[in-house]
Amino acid sequence: KVSDLEWPTPQKLPYGPLTNYGYEGTVTLLQNLTFPDSIPEGPLMVSGTVNLLVCHDICIPESHDVAIVFNGGRIAEKNLIKQAEHALPEIKEWQAVYSESNGDFVIDVTTNDKSILTEKNIIIAPEDWGALDNTVEVSIEETDNGLRFFQKRGDRDLEEIEDLPVVVVSD
Predict the structure, then answer these.
(1) Separation between Cα atoms, residue 45 and residue 68, nearest integer Å
(2) Is pLDDT above 70 for 126?
(3) Does residue 6 have a pLDDT over 80?
């Protein structure tokens, strides 16, 4: 059994008039593997193919065959795993609704956790395109029920979007 990949918190990557979200340098993705209760003794190889985009001025697709050997005598790199776990976004089970107001994309969050109000450099990284103008900074205010995030609207019609998972990042 293989879990979904766990991605680190994305970075805001300006490129001319555009803004992307992604990663620079080395990125470690975490994934849990669960083996059957009984596996043969000795080395066990798990292999697969990784498809990715390498982007700078343009994006170039790449494909790599990878393999890892379990029970092969190699010791896990615990520091690398701890660093990758530290880079994961903190999951908040906030209830949120989005709307449009005066040309802004608005997210109303119901929460008692107001800790993000003291954070700087807040970005909203949606998992779908076009709802936000990613080149504009995020504003945030406290409401009676929680928090309200404002960011200039993108070009996409909100009625086209059924569900919009977002990652809110601050440092």
Answers:
(1) 6
(2) yes
(3) yes
Q: Report residue 16's pLDDT band, with 50, 70 and 90 as the boundaries.
A: confident
Place of tokens 């119901």: 110
Question: What pLDDT is recorded for position 171?
Answer: 64
Distance CA 30, CA 5 (A): 6
Residue 158 has φ and ψ, to the nearest 5°, of: -60, -25
Residue 170: how many other CB atoms lie within 10 Å:
16
